[in-house]
């Protein structure tokens, strides 16, 4: 398993119990999707894995987050990136006043090897030729889809073996969502495991091999992406089938 989350409990400010004992695993080389309605705890799960929780006023109360056998739950975000986990947060959070190139460079800061950074930049430019073309343009001037590509590219600059994606399709046109889905498949084919949070269940279940449904801080359903696409509750709640 690339990632194993076991009995994870997370709260914010000691009061809001956002995750209430969730367990899930992402097999090495897989794409796992997490579905769930607003407030179910999807972003919280990714923050608990990447170490971004503390800066949001949250903390792990119980349970473990492991990458292989290493416990990530006490490490800071920079150490977690060095272990091979990169997080593309909700809302992209690119640096709008920096150029595309500077955004990518920022993503490579935690990657100690110059050769590895150069290889990562080449991979990013191949995956997203538009980022090579727009190298000197400010990130804030890119379209929504291009900004999402930049956010993913920036995360890949760290050379991760596990990529955490928080709602990459949010606010994008159907055609662009299709492109993002294809690029996630290609990134995975190149050897990076992916944990994908999505409101767009159609896209998520198309690209993923495993899937989980979060419901008020617990895992209410899990199985292969095929199984979940055939599940009546998933169809009704997330795939818009009546
Ligand atoms: P959404 O898609 O709306 O972001 P989500 O499934 O990602 O939903 P989370 O953002 O993880 O859900 O939120 C889970 C719960 O934790 C919600 O009740 C939310 O209000 C609460 N929460 C999230 N972030 C914080 C925070 N920084 N401080 C306090 N409570 C928070």
UniProtKB/TrEMBL annotation:
Gene Ontology molecular function: ATP binding; ATP hydrolysis activity; branched-chain amino acid transmembrane transporter activity
SUPFAM superfamilies xref list: P-loop containing nucleoside triphosphate hydrolases
Gene3D superfamilies named in the record: P-loop containing nucleotide triphosphate hydrolases (3.40.50.300)
Family annotation (InterPro entries): AAA+_ATPase (IPR003593), ABC_transporter-like_ATP-bd (IPR003439), ABC_transporter-like_CS (IPR017871), BCAA_Transport_ATP-bd_LivF (IPR052156), P-loop_NTPase (IPR027417)
All copies of domain ABC transporter, residue ranges: 3-241
Recorded superkingdom: Bacteria
Short name of one Pfam family: ABC_tran
GO annotation, biological process: L-amino acid transport
Transmembrane segments: none
Keywords, ordered alphabetically: Amino-acid transport, ATP-binding, Nucleotide-binding, Transport
PANTHER family xrefs: HIGH-AFFINITY BRANCHED-CHAIN AMINO ACID TRANSPORT ATP-BINDING PROTEIN LIVF (PTHR43820:SF4)
Family: Belongs to the ABC transporter superfamily.
Record protein name field: Amino acid/amide ABC transporter ATP-binding protein 2, HAAT family
Source organism of the structure: Cryptosporangium aurantiacum
Taxonomic lineage of the native organism: Bacteria, Bacillati, Actinomycetota, Actinomycetes, Cryptosporangiales
């Amino acid at each position: 398993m690339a990632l194993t989350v076991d009995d994870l409990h997370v709260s914010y400010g000691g009061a809001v119990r956002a995750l209430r004992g969730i367990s899930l695993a992402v097999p090495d080389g897989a794409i796992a999707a997490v579905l769930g309605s607003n407030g179910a705890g999807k972003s919280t799960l990714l923050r608990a894995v990447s170490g971004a929780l503390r800066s949001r006023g949250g903390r792990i109360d119980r349970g473990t987050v492991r990458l292989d056998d290493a416990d990530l739950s006490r490490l800071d975000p920079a150490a977690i990136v060095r272990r091979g986990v990169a997080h593309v947060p909700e809302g992209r959070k690119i640096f709008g006043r920096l150029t595309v190139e500077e955004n990518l460079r920022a993503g490579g800061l935690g990657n100690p090897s110059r050769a590895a950074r150069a290889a990562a930049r080449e991979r990013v430019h191949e995956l997203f030729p538009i980022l090579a073309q727009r190298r000197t343009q400010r990130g804030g001037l890119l379209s929504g889809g291009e900004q999402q590509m930049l956010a993913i590219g920036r995360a890949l600059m760290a050379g991760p073996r596990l990529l955490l994606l928080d709602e990459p399709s949010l606010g994008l046109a159907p055609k662009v969502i299709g492109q993002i889905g294809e690029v996630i498949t290609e990134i995975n084919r190149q050897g990076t495991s992916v944990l994908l949070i999505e409101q767009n269940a159609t896209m998520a279940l198309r690209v993923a091999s495993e899937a989980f449904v979060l419901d008020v801080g617990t895992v209410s359903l899990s199985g292969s992406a095929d199984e979940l696409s055939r599940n009546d509750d998933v169809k009704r709640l997330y795939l818009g089938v009546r």
